[in-house]
Design goal:
The chain has about 425 residues and is an alpha/beta fold. The chain has 16 helices and ten strands. The strands form two sheets. It has a five-stranded mixed β-sheet with strand order 1-10-9-7-8, sandwiched between helices. The chain has a five-stranded parallel β-sheet with strand order 3-2-4-5-6, with helices on both faces. α2 crosses α15 (about 380-400) and α4 packs parallel to α9. It is globular and about 65 Å long. Bound molecules: 5-phosphoarabinonic acid (PA5).
């Protein structure tokens, strides 16, 4: 379902295979839960173990929300919103018209943003999904207090029917609040960390509210589990990708740019940045994950990639089938001199831009390129892609002897902020 190609990355089979023994041992550590961070590997078997009763409840709740609201507000930060947003934008695009509008809050302290969203909600029918594993994240708590007051003022006692909380099974401020107010709740499993949680109710409820087929998403996840559950580097593209990242970093490439030619995929790149950045960026190790959407960013970052300092490699995330293809129209006057494209599919034009850019960056820019090709922007592919990146990320971190599942560095800003806020 996913093709991975490293032939443009100046790597050879021998170098890749030199990692086989290490990969075999890291794979065993992941599977038998003996590696670093082994309390957080619930995602590995999740395609087999997820709670089917809760899954059915997610679908029912999503239908209830869809019938009640014009706007569905997802209140969460980091792993508690990026995956849902990535999925919804990938499959529905930036301006969906066949589902409630999904708005994301709880991921910023910006008073401008918060005030403008609250103002926008005034005359809308609103439902809210507040998502926090810890139940104490400040950005989320600030936004949720505003939302809760707004909902209670607008709907009175009925507000509780329009608010859903996704949080820890038993503990935390949000769990207590939800119990006290009678909100429907969904569980974030103890052994799945935030950035691996899009495949749990964290991601699934907002994705289902957007009208996306979450059964298909889980089928994609399950297919990936079966395809990628081998340590054999000749058969596992996720592990090959993990090894290529290590080889390219050894060759001096300390930054990886995930490149897509689909604006719908730009939030997938944000999600990927969190996954790899928070998992790998520790102990002064790791590759800096950054992203670009081409051809848009060829008109900004393209110059640096082509001729700037040779610090990065690119990972192309190519989509074979667009959601919609357009045929470029003929114009009898042809004053813009564009008739040479008349009758062509715009997806073909996009593909030619990708091919020309690959040649430019690789041949004269000497920028290594890894290529991940997905067939389409469907729910099944999204589920598959998530699992592909989870496996690659865990493996690439284990190859660096790093715990992929914690984020101790994130606490430092919080400590300072709390001191300054007088908490
Ligand atoms: O990956 C992570 O664990 C983090 O990015 C969290 O998702 C983020 O900090 C939000 O945490 P919480 O869900 O506890 O509010």
């Amino acid at each position: 379902m996913i093709r991975f190609d490293e032939t443009h990355a100046f790597l050879n089979e021998e170098e890749i295979n030199s990692y086989q023994a290490q990969v075999t041992s890291c794979h065993a550590a992941l599977m038998n839960k003996s590696g670093k961070g082994n309390d957080y590997v619930g995602w590995v078997e999740w395609p087999n173990t997820y709670d089917k009763e809760e899954f059915a409840r997610i679908k029912a709740c999503a239908e209830r929300m869809r019938a009640m609201c014009d706007v569905f507000v997802v209140c969460g930060i980091g792993g508690s919103y990026l995956g849902a947003r990535a999925a919804i934008e990938m499959m529905k695009g930036l301006y969906p018209q066949d589902c409630p509008e999904i708005i994301f809050m709880g991921n910023t302290f910006s008073s401008t943003y918060l005030a403008q969203v609250m103002n926008y909600l005034q005359d809308k029918e609103v439902c809210v999904n507040v998502i926090s594993k810890s139940g104490t994240t400040t950005e989320t708590a600030v936004a949720f207090r505003l939302l809760k007051q707004f909902m209670e003022k607008k709907y009175g006692e009925d507000a509780a029917k329009r608010i859903v909380a996704t949080t820890d099974r038993t503990k935390g401020t949000l769990k207590e609040l939800a119990l006290a107010k009678g909100y429907e709740t969904f569980v974030i499993p103890d052994d799945i960390g935030g950035r691996y949680s899009v495949i749990t109710p964290v991601g699934l409820l907002p994705i289902a509210v957007a009208g996306i087929d979450i059964d298909a998403l889980m089928q994609g996840l399950s297919s990936a589990y079966h395809d990628l559950n081998t340590a054999d580097l000749t058969k596992n593209p996720a592990y090959r990708y993990a090894v290529c990242r290590r080889l390219l970093q050894h060759a001096g490439k300390d930054a990886e740019m995930l490149v897509s030619y689909e604006p719908n995929m730009s939030m997938c790149a944000e999600w990927w940045k969190q996954l790899f950045g928070e998992s790998e960026g520790k102990e002064e190790k790791g590759i800096l994950p950054c992203s670009a959407t081409f051809s848009t960013d060829l008109h900004s970052l393209g110059q640096f990639i082509q001729e700037g300092k040779k610090v990065l490699f690119e990972t192309l995330l190519l989509v074979e089938q667009p959601l919609v293809d357009l045929v470029f129209p003929k114009d009898e006057e042809n004053r813009d001199a564009m008739n040479y494209l008349a009758g062509q599919s715009l997806n073909w034009v996009n593909q030619m831009a990708a091919q020309g850019t690959l040649e430019a960056h690789e041949e004269s820019g000497h920028v290594p390129n890894l290529i991940i090709t997905i067939p389409d922007m469907s729910a099944k592919t999204f589920g598959y892609l998530c699992y592909f990146f989870f496996r690659s990320c865990a493996m690439t971190c284990y190859l660096l002897d790093i715990n992929p599942f914690n984020q101790p560095g994130v606490e430092v800003y919080k400590k300072n902020m709390f001191r300054l806020l007088g908490k």
